[in-house]
Every structure is written in structure tokens, then in C-alpha cells.
Amino acid sequence: MTSDRPPALPLFDTLRHFESSNPFINQHLASLVCQGIDDASLSYEHALDFLVEQRHNENNYKSHRSELTTFLHWCWCEEGVSLQQVDRRLLVRYLDYCQSPPPALIGYRNVAQFLAAKGETERRPNPNWRPFLGRMEMGEKLPYRLSVSAIKTKLALLSAFFTYLNDVEYTDRNPAALLLKRAKARYAGQSGLGEETPMKAFTELQWSYVLGAATRLANEQPEQYERTLFLVSLLYSCYLRVSEVSARPGFSPVMGQFRRDSKTGVWGFFVPMSKGGKSRTVALSDAMLNALKRYREYLGLPAMPAPKELTPLFCRHRAAQRGRDVGELNANLGQRQIRELVDGLISVASQDAAADGLADDAREMAEMTVHSLRHTGISHDINLNGRPLSHVQADAGHDSIDTTSHYLHTSQVERHQTARTKPLDHLGFAAD
Known about the structure:
Strand order of the largest sheet: 7-8-9
CATH architecture of the largest domain: Orthogonal Bundle
Low-confidence stretches: 184-197, 319-329
Number of helices: 16
Strand content: 5-15%
Radius of gyration: 24 Å
Order of helices and strands: HHHHEEEEEEHHHHHEEEHHHHHHH
Largest sheet: 3 strands, antiparallel
Structural class: mainly alpha
CATH topology of the largest domain: hpI Integrase, Chain A
Mean pLDDT: 86
Number of domains: 2
Shape: globular
CATH superfamily of the largest domain: Intergrase catalytic core
Number of strands: 9
């Protein structure tokens, strides 16, 4: 090899080194942004977040990592498109590409994607790595082929990724699922793609356990849990996406995003860039303002933020050990840290519910994620608090009120109760 880099750059290291910042990847992402893929860094953060959810099964992690690396390379470097632009037509082109990839991207032996030179901690892309693995027979390279089952596996992996992107409302379609529906019914059934996937939102009772656990822990161990109480209060009350409150390259949330309208005196939380590059201001309830005051009082700050205040929204308890904020204490939390805090709280709340004899609720709660807080806040405001759909739509950042209306009667039990007494004949003529 004359080059020290492979023709296609690997994007995700092994589980052991997964969360370590890699300067080669960072440089690659910056280059993509300069080339017009404006959301490359944010898309990459979402891919990282998705892969972390696979960390408990190394084989699953490797499968998803391999597919996402190839797919993102094709999107960014071959087609020059963002994830949000991928539709069924483009995905068919991707499958065609995978069935006949450029010869330069086909390797004939399994090698590590990243290597560390002896005596160095920095891990570099392996120049011998290739995204496609071909076969040889008697020393001769065989024509590269993808079996039907391999294509279906690709679609299943991508469908899981797009389902995640839909869940965090980064995209609003799943082209892989559409293609899978054209496959055999047997395969479609195995993929778990039903017509209706219930939104993962806490019930009123389940949410009371979550907030109750957060409040109890904050009272008992404020140095560790006051931040968690404020975090879950904000995510629930303002329906915020994780990407809207976490640090990433080019964005670090600050207290100054809580703003008071000089004309009305009304407080809101400003989201500078959300899905589709749009900004919005979320209306704040009195309860949320009280939660903000409590957290700021704990931090030794004035009750309400000053205009353009740059205090980080969520300060670290310990200095960062790796990444772009290494050694810094006064820095925001990233997506993974926020998810871990919320997951830990949900686990405690689930155990509390189980201890009270609510086994089914505890089991359902254990399956919830940080994204469930956004779904829960929206669902509760519509179905319990009676907020107008148009108000919730604006605060949630939904492009269409149709999206917001999906949160109406999301419970199968509720639908059964409203359908149970429906008559077939309102006028009673059939009985005569």
C-alpha cells in the first residue's frame, strides 16, 4: 500500500474503543460538512447513539457497525446525500451498489478497521481494511455476489436504524421497511415490522414512579441527582429530543436558552437548531420554571438565567476523561452520558414499581428509553392536560399536525374501551 489510509474510511471502532474520540474520523466529518453534507456530524452522532444500544451483544454490534459504515460511506462519499434525503429510490440504488461494489473497496481477508502503532494510543484507520469482503478459490478472486438473504439482512439492519431515527424524529420515513414489505411475508413477519408500532410512552402511573424516584434521590443525594431531576423534568415538560440538550461539535446548550419575552414577560426555552435545521421556542409551565429555579439554587446561581447566560445547561460532576472536552469540568454532557443518567433513573423507578407489586408496569418501564420522555410529555399534554394539538405541535417541533395527532389514544386499552359499546344499529330497526 502506498497510501496510509483505506479508500473508504472506517467510522466506528471496536466496543473497547468506541467512545474514544478519533481525530481521523473528526477530520473526515469536518471535510464532509465543507463539501455540503451539512448534517454529517449530527447524523454520525445519531449513528453512535444507535450503536451504543447494541453494545450488550457484540455480534449485533459488529453487524450494525459493518452495515452503517458501508451505508454512510455510500451516502456521503458516493452519492453526496444526507441521511434525511434517503428514500426508497435511493435505497434501491444503494443495494445495486452493494451487489456490484467498486473493486477497490473489496478486500479478501478479514482485518481490523483501526490499528494503534506500538507505543501509541492514537488509533489509525487500517490501510488494508475494505468495507466489502470477497472470496477467493485456489488463489483466484471470485466475482463478488450478494445472496438474497444477505440483501434482506442489509434491509433488516437498515430498517432498525431508520426506526431509531424515526423514534428520535431525525427522519420521518423508513425506506428499508418499505422494501422489506415487498419481500416474502415470512421474512417480513420475522423482521418485526407490524402495521402498528406502539409509541413507547409512560402511563400516568409509571411516570409518577419515574418523577418520584428522581425527586427522592435528589433530596437524599443532591450532589448526584439534582441534575438528573432537572434533566428529566426538562425532557418531559418541553418534549425535547436528546440531541437538543446534549453537546456535540458546534453546539453546547447553555442556560441562556431560557429566555423571557420582553413584551409579554413569558418564559420559553429556545432550541436553536432542531430537526430539519429549524429553531423553535417551547412554552414553559410554572412547574418547569420551579424545577429550573430549584436546580439553579442548588448550583448557587440566581433563580432565573440572565440574558445570553453561558452557564452550561448540565454541568459535569467529573472532568471529561476523553473526547473534545477532556480535562474540562465546566462542560456539557453528550448524548451517551444523558442516556445513561436517564436509563439509570428508569431502572430505579422500575424496581420501585416491582417492589409495590406492579410487575407488568415494572417490566414495561424497564423497556423505556430516554426518548420515551419526549413521547410521554406529548402524550400526557394532549390526553391528560388537554392542551390544543396546535400548541403541542409548535412546542414539539412537528412539521405537520398529523404527526402530533398520532399521540391521541395511543393505548390499545383506551381504544378497546371506546369501541366496546359501539352499536351496529343506532336506530334499532334491525330488532323489529
